Structures are given as C-alpha cells and as structure tokens.
Amino acid sequence: MANVIVKRVQEFLKRFPPFSFLKPSDLELVASQVEVQFLAKEEILFKKNEAARPHFYILKEGQIGLYDQNEIKDYCDEGDVFGVLALLGKRPYIYEAKVEVDSLVYSIPVSVFEEILEKNSKVALYFAAGFASGQVVVRQDLSTGQKARGVLKKDNQDHSLLIFSDPSQIQFSERVIHIDLNATVQEAAQKMASESVSSIVVCGENQIPLGIITDKDLRSKVVAQALPLNTKVDHVMSSPVITKKKDAGFSDLYLSMIKNRLHHLILTEDGSPNSPICGILSDHDVLLSMGNSPAVLIHALLNTEMVSEMKSIRDRAETMLKYYLENEVSMDFVASVLTEINDVIIQQAVKIAQNKLSEEFPQMKSIRFVFLCLGSEGREEQLLRTDLDNAILYEDVPKELEKIAADYFLQLGTEVVEILLACGFSPCPGEIMASNPKWNQPLSRWKKYFSDWILTPTPEALLRASIFYDFRPIAGFNGLSEELSLHVYENIQKKKGFLSYLGQNAFLSPPPLGFFKDFIVEKSQEHRDQFDIKARAMMPLTDLARLLILSYGVVGINNTFKRFEKLCELEPQNAQLFTQAGKAYEILMRMRALEGLENQNNGRYIRPENMGKLQRQLLKSTFAPISELQEIVRIRFQLDLLRS
Amino acid sequence: MSWWPFSKKKEDSRTFVQEFLEQSKVKTPGIRSIQQLSFVVLDTETTGLNPAKDHILSFGAVKIEEGKIRINSSLELYPESDREIGKSAEIHGITQRPETISQEEFSRTLLPYLGNSILVGQHIHFDKSMLEKITGIPSFPNPMIDTANFALRLEKGPQANWNHVNSKDYSLDQLCERYGIQTEDRHTASGDAFLTAQLFLKLLKIAQSKGIQTYGELIKS
C-alpha cells in the first residue's frame, strides 16, 4: 500500500493529463519516483541547448516562463508538463525555463515513464497526438495547444548526426576528371569548363594523382598573376595531394577534409597517393549527405536540372518537414522553408522548360512573363505536395505575335506542370494550372478576368476567389504580377460592395460543429464520417483573412497567419481574436500536414473517432475564432442584407 | 544487509544501534554547501504530548537530497503500542491503524534510514525525544533543525527570542499558510512530514538568499 506522501503526489498528478490516463498502479509507480524542488523567482531551471536531463517536469505551483533568446514563448502554470524533450527525444532543451514566481516543481524520471509509454496506448496517443511537446504540454487554450505537440517515436533522431554512423549515404563521383601532367592550364580550364566541374586532378602514369587544380587556383595563381595560358599544370597545381581509401568510413573521410581544409578529397585504390585514383569526394557531396537541412536541399536543387533528382530532393524535404512538425518548429519557419523549396523547384522547372523551347521559339525570348502560384502555394502555405494551382501571365504582344505567344506559353506551362507532376505534386482537379489555355493568358486578358469577377460576382467567380486572389509570382518578371495586383486592388476600391459578396464565401461552409457539439462529418460515400479539415476549418479562416486584408487594401501579404498578424496591427481592438485565429490556422496546418504525412495523402480528411480526446479538443478549440470572426464579418459587411 | 540468513538471528538490537552511532561520528565539514546536505524531514503522531508516558502511533519521513524531496525515499511506519489511544489521536483522527510492526522492527528500519542525516521537523525536539524513547538510544547524535525555530530566525533575525513572539504564529498550519503551501488533509505523520519538507525547502531558499550557504552557517542560524 502506498504511503501518504506517495498518495499525495499521486492525487496531484492524477488531475492532469497524461497522468490522468494512467492505471492506479502505474500512477503510484510514477508518483513514488517524483522529486520535488522549490525554485525561487529568477532561477533558471534549464537553459536553451542544454543537454536534456533524465527527467521531465510538471509544475506543482508557481509560474515558469519558457524563453527563446529572451523572448517569452510560453508560461507554464499549475499542472503544465514541460521539458518533455527529455522524455521523447533526449534532445537538448529548445527553450530556457525561468522561474517567474516562486515555484514548486515535480521532476519525473524519464526511465519510469518510458515503460509506461510502451504499454499504455492512451498515454502514447496523448504524446503522439501532439500534446506533449517541444516544451509545454496541455492546456486547453490555443497558445499552448499549438506548441503542444511532439515526437513520440524513438527512432526519430537528428539526421545530421545520424549520418556519421551511416556511410552508405555518401555518394561521391567515381568518374574523376583528370588531366595529364604535361597539359597546359588552358587545357585544364577547358576540360573543367566542358565537364562543368570546379576541380581537376593532375595525374602521372597509371592515373597516379600528383596534384589538383581548382577554380581558385586558376583565379589566384593564373589569372591574378597574369601567367600565360600555356603554363604547365604542374606549375600551378596544389601538391602533394591528400588521399584516402575509397571505402574508408564517412567520418574518417570527412574529418580529413575538415582537418586539411580541403574542398576535394581524392580517393585512391589503396588510400596512398601512389595508387591509381578511383574517386573524388567534394564538400558538396558531403553537404548533400548531411541531408536534411534546408540550405543543403536548396543548394542541391539549384545545382540540378534532372527532374528525377529534383523529386528525390523534394522527397527528402518531406522527411525534414515531418521532423520539423514533430519537433515543434514554428509554423512560420516551417512554411517559409517549404515554400522556398517549392519555389526553387518551380523556378528550376521554368528554367528547364525555357531551355527546351528556346530553339523552337527564338522570338519569344524577349517576351516577359511571370509564372504565378495560386491557392496554398500562393499563400506560402503548401507543406505537402497537394494540388497544383498555377498560371502564366505574359505581357501583351503585338497582334502578329499573339498566336505564337499563346502557343509558346502554353507549351512552356505544360512543360512546367509536367515537371512538377514528376516531382510528386498532384494535379489540380479543377484544371487551374498553367497547362490550361484559360489560365495561360496575356496581362490584358488577366485584368479582364478580374474586372469581370469583381463587377459581376457570380457564385462561380466567388468560389474561384479563394484560389485566384492569392497569386504570387514565382519565376519570371515580377512587375507583371505587381501590375495585376494593382489592377485588382483598384477595382475592389471602386466596387466596395464586392467585399460583401466575398464575405459570403466565408460562410459557405457550415460551422464545423453540429448540434451535439460534435464534428460535422462528410456524408458522401468516399469520405463518409470523415471530417474535412480543409473545407470546414482552414478555408473559412483563409477566406476571412483574405476578406479583411483586402478590405484594408493591403497588398503583398498572402500568408494566412501573416495576414492575421497584420490585422492585429490594423485593428488593435481585435488583436486578441486575430492572434487566436492565426494560431488556430497554424495548428490546423500542422494537423493536416501530419495527417497527410502519416497516411501519404493530402491530409484533408480526418476521422474524428481515430483522434485522441485531447486532439479532438484541440481541433475544436480552433473553431472558436472562426465563429467569432464570422460574426464580425457578418456585421461589418452587412451580409444579412445580401442574404435576404 | 547481509545475504547470510543466519547472521540475522545473532544480531541483537545493539548491533544496528552501534552501526547507527558509528555513522554519526563522521562529522560534516562546516563548509559543505547546503545543496550537498542530506536531510530527513520527519514527523510522529503520538498518544500524547508527554514523551515520558506517551507512545508513537505513526512515523512519517521523507529525505531531501541535492535540494530535492525524493518521494521514493518516503517512509511510513506504524509501531506497536501497548497504550490506549489517547487524546492526541482524536485530534489526528487515527482510529484504525494499518498493519503495525514491533518496536524492535521499527528501530531496525528507522536507524539505518536516518543514518547521519540532518533531522528536520516541526518542533523536532519532541519527535527526537519520542524516537529516543522507542529506540532506547539515550541521545540522538544527529544535527537537528526545528522548522519553527528556523522560520523565526529567518524572519526576526538570529537574536529572535520565543518570548517575544506568539508561538501560534509558528505552528505548522500558520507557517504553511504564510509560505503558500497547500494543507488539505493534514494530521497524518507522513502528510505533515511532506508539508514540513516543502516548508523547509522554501525556508532553505530564503536562507540562501540571506547568505546562508553552508552547513556551518545553517546549523549556526
């Protein structure tokens, strides 16, 4: 029988999830291992980047602030669980925990809890559902819910560290560009240029490496010194070379590059400089093998025009995305990174398509155009490779060129869309893509489209609004897109009533909760009993944000949560609501992306019965700002008048 | 503890008492920091307030090590008593006691648990007398801290005198209230020991903020 002290601790823990899910015997076990400490105001419990302790915390009383570089991220109050990374990932703390008022803190050893995680699916679900998290877990309000998500799986390790134990992932070129010792620097440079490499190995007999010449050598030793082009390569090469055996471990190879400040490491048959070369490892290869950092992926994308490689890099971005989502990386950052990666892919696709068509259409080279992304990618919110929505806008051309321009840009658009599909994006079911002649038009035509939509807002036109009004230039000449933006805003200013019609859009989808405070699920056969998170929760928020931001004539902010941020500034009296709405949107984005990654689909349909109670609550809590905003919009844009 | 099953029979009460007294001969250096000290925070419920006549009904304790209350060190014991339950038990609401152990068994468990830790308690000297009586040790060698006294000195300074304050202000209930410690369900030995431990952690923090950092300074205060 547990003694009174253990029982007291137990009684406290029982009141808060995840402890509330534990069987009494497990709870007793956990309670009996608790350590209690008292911290005075201003004390630091743990620091950012400090290695995780073998326990996590629940606040018994007081208040603790979580800071990132002096910026407050969250406050923990009684019953809040924090420092959970130690439990789940054994990763360093991402925030600093500072005591705001004298606090009593319970530490719970990770070792006790790990066993429970394994056998108690509710607790596991609680963590999996994202309530345990980066730092804070569980409070019903959005600010925490948003952070309250995390990693459960133990196999989720930092990939950039993992690489050191997994040499199979390094790829280096086995084909080494080399040149004879008797060659001239000009010959070396020519060969480097034709092979588009940044270094060349100078070889003696039997391909024994004698030296290496890099771009830098040509710059600093040849051009800067004004050496004649017929200078022999042995005069400028770096020698002797440092070599390693081909099948040496990755860390060995990498360390010798670091130690010797090498950009290129030559690999030979037996590892000595006296055996034939069989490969070369560049720091670019190393960087790539380090994998999942945005900089590496973007760098890699910029350096390839092979569609298959672009796809595999985008696949890797997905792994990185999952890692970010599970690790409570801020949605702002996640969305920006993924947007950047998507943008680079589109830019590369446009470049590839242009090159392919350049010979056939020489006269089109000077015609300016812009490739626009619409919908979620236009809003910089596309995390998964969901539907493509894009368009091409080109400058008005003289009458005689009209036909050929239409032909060229349609081919260009089709080419780009095909590349994007090959990269794993899904086609737009509504054919709103640059491969559709309707959405591949000169500026004057685009202006007319928008004028018409604004002047006569048919239901169809309004439905399109949610896609078309969020256009964003990705590749080509941005000025065209700006001109179109200006046109749109001028037209809206002229016809203010349009906003009221647009406002109706935000009411098209019924509220997400039914009479019995339960989720409205789909009735259609295919998605029966599933909750459409996109249509029911995300689109209303997107529509509301767009409507309000358009009503202020703010140009250039496409992102939904950034729009809400801007609205906070514009309407301080509603700042709290807008903040909540922005957070709700971030939560929904994260939920949908995780759902999509989990099921390898677009994450749009969620089965409420498969969700944990807490996750359902979190989802429900995102609805509150929707209905409040709808109310504001209803009054502000006098929507009732329109309806009657 | 010995793995040799027969040695237990030979061991008389003296042996573990000797071991206990032996342990206490190791003196803690005065400069040791408070964080490094081991405390046992304890409380007893008794049949009455007279150590000469009354008996321990229950004993509760928990250790503080490295500044943390270690719940897994909590100990709760109910020694046999040959005396009728007295007035004090009514206050404490002890009418039915869980399984009891012999006084010898009690001492045998208690003394190794205490070791040479610093004993902490609300009016610890009363508990000390009761424990001395039940264990048959004439005088406990452990250093002791009375939380009531500790609080008084922290609040009124080292020269404070009990004659100048209302001692009721330094009851466990009053102290807990003053230092913001929730006191639902009081009056079990373990429960009070746990409250006292929390109070003591807070007092230690205040002491440290007043410059009391070491064992020497703590005992002096």
Automatic annotation (TrEMBL), chain A:
Residues 56-117 form the Cyclic nucleotide-binding domain. It comes from the Bacteria. The keyword Amino-acid biosynthesis does not apply. Keywords: CBS domain. Residues 172-229, 237-296 form the CBS domain. InterPro entries: CBS_dom, CBS_dom_sf, cNMP-bd_dom, cNMP-bd_dom_sf, Diverse_CBS-Domain, DUF294_put_nucleoTrafse_sb-bd, GlnD_Uridyltrans_N, NT_sf. One of its GO terms (molecular function) is [protein-PII] uridylyltransferase activity. SUPFAM superfamilies: cAMP-binding domain-like, CBS-domain pair, Nucleotidyltransferase. The keyword Metal-binding does not apply. This is CBS domain-containing protein. It comes from Algoriphagus zhangzhouensis.
UniProtKB/TrEMBL annotation, chain B:
Keywords: Exonuclease, Hydrolase, Nuclease. One of its GO terms (cellular component) is cytosol. Residues 38-209 form the Exonuclease domain. SMART domains: EXOIII. SUPFAM superfamilies: Ribonuclease H-like. GO terms for biological process: DNA metabolic process. GO terms for molecular function: 3'-5' exonuclease activity; nucleic acid binding. Gene3D superfamilies: Ribonuclease H-like superfamily/Ribonuclease H. PANTHER family: DNA POLYMERASE III SUBUNIT EPSILON (PTHR30231), PROTEIN NEN2 (PTHR30231:SF4). This is DNA polymerase-3 subunit epsilon.
